[in-house]
Design a protein that fits this description.
Blueprint: H1 8-20, E1 27-31, H2 33-44, E2 49-53, H3 64-70, H4 75-84, E3 91-93, H5 97-107, E4 118-125, E5 128-133, H6 143-159, E6 167-171, H7 182-192, E7 197-202, H8 204-207, E8 214-216, H9 219-244, H10 248-256, H11 258-268, E9 276-279, E10 285-287, H12 294-309, H13 312-329
Parallel strand pairs: 1-2, 3-10, 5-8, 6-7, 6-8
Antiparallel strand pairs: 4-5, 4-9, 9-10
Length: 330
């Protein structure tokens, strides 16, 4: 029931995911049962979709912690409880990000060895995509947190993106190991001594060129980068549309170039990647943009299913158990 276009786009995305699934995927819609049955029963009929009743809704502008504490029958709270009881294996939400994160922490807890969960997002690049984390869960971090982000991001890229030995970069204001704040410099030492494929510092200009498969940073910086990137994409799209409609000749050129524009739009479309996984939680949680379309929800469900199938959390626990203490002490 959360999101700018809920419940219509959420249900449509769930239907698309259930329709296209060939691996036994089942979907549970969590929300006001009366509303869902009345408006969507014909749409979900015959599909592997169930409804779990949740009469309360956390608004997008509500204070997250207070909302989670007061509204224990909200759709996000009920969904997290379903995962805790193992009735579902993953949760996808386009609702209040803070509430989703708070509910996941309270209900599911952290994976062993993880001190700070991180929200990761996929940014399109000239050579595929880059995973950026954290983008909002932790405004301030310690060096050891950035090491954990690097480990979790590396495993996500390896098992979800199917990248062998993914490269990991640390966001800083210069490539030299001595550049950055004291936290960044200390994190560089930890990452350099770890077993992940750390390539050193990367700068903001390197993110969209695909210089590293994974880029780690604190949540404040990551969120600013994410919002700035979204603004740049919107500006470029609007400018391109204006320029191509100014004259008959430009419109003809646009028609001839339409296959190229379509491919570019696909490559730059964040909805192709669904949503942002909350890594480090003892469960699978995908947080989608509040304005997500059915396409974004469908792909988020697909990514959540892949995380479950690949056993990502088991890999994170295993890696943390085997190298976490050694890496932090190095």
């Amino acid at each position: 029931m959360g999101g700018d276009h809920a419940p219509e786009r959420i249900v449509e995305g769930a239907v698309e995911a259930a329709t296209m699934a060939r691996d036994g995927l089942e979907v549970v819609l969590v929300g006001d049962q009366g509303v869902l049955v009345e408006r969507f029963s014909s749409l979900i009929h015959g599909l592997p979709i169930e409804i779990a009743h949740a009469p309360e809704i956390v608004a997008m502008d509500e204070a997250p912690t207070a909302a989670v504490r007061r509204k224990r029958d909200s759709s996000v709270a009920v969904a997290m409880n379903l995962q805790r009881s193992r009735e579902v294996q993953a949760v996808v939400t386009a609702g209040n990000t803070g509430a989703a994160m708070a509910s996941a922490l309270v209900t599911l807890g952290r994976l062993p060895g993880v001190s700070r969960p991180a929200i990761a997002t996929v940014l399109p690049t000239s050579d595929g995509a880059t995973l950026l984390l954290d983008v909002g869960a932790n405004t301030e971090v310690q060096p050891a947190n950035l090491l954990e982000f690097g480990i979790m991001g590396s495993l996500y890229a390896e098992h979800v993106f199917q990248i062998e030995a993914p490269t990991i970069g640390l966001l800083s204001n210069g490539e030299e190991s001595g550049k950055g704040t004291d936290t960044i410099i200390a994190a560089h030492r930890l990452l350099s001594g770890s077993s992940i494929n750390f390539i050193g510092n990367v700068q903001g200009s390197d993110i969209l060129t695909g210089a590293a498969n994974v880029v780690v940073c604190d949540g404040f910086t990551g969120n600013v980068i994410l919002k700035f990137t979204e603004g740049i994409m919107s500006l470029l799209t609007a400018g391109l549309k204006r320029g191509l409609s100014r004259s008959p000749l430009s419109r003809l050129g646009a028609l001839l170039m339409s296959p190229v524009f379509h491919q570019l739009r696909t490559e730059l479309d964040y909805e192709e990647y669904g949503g942002a996984p909350l890594l480090g939680i003892d469960g699978v949680v995908i947080i989608c943009h509040g304005g997500s379309t059915a396409k974004a929800i469908r792909n988020a469900v697909r990514v959540a299913g892949r995380m479950v199938q690949e056993g990502l959390n088991e890999h994170i626990k295993e890696r943390m158990n085997s190298i976490h203490a050694r890496d932090i002490q190095s």
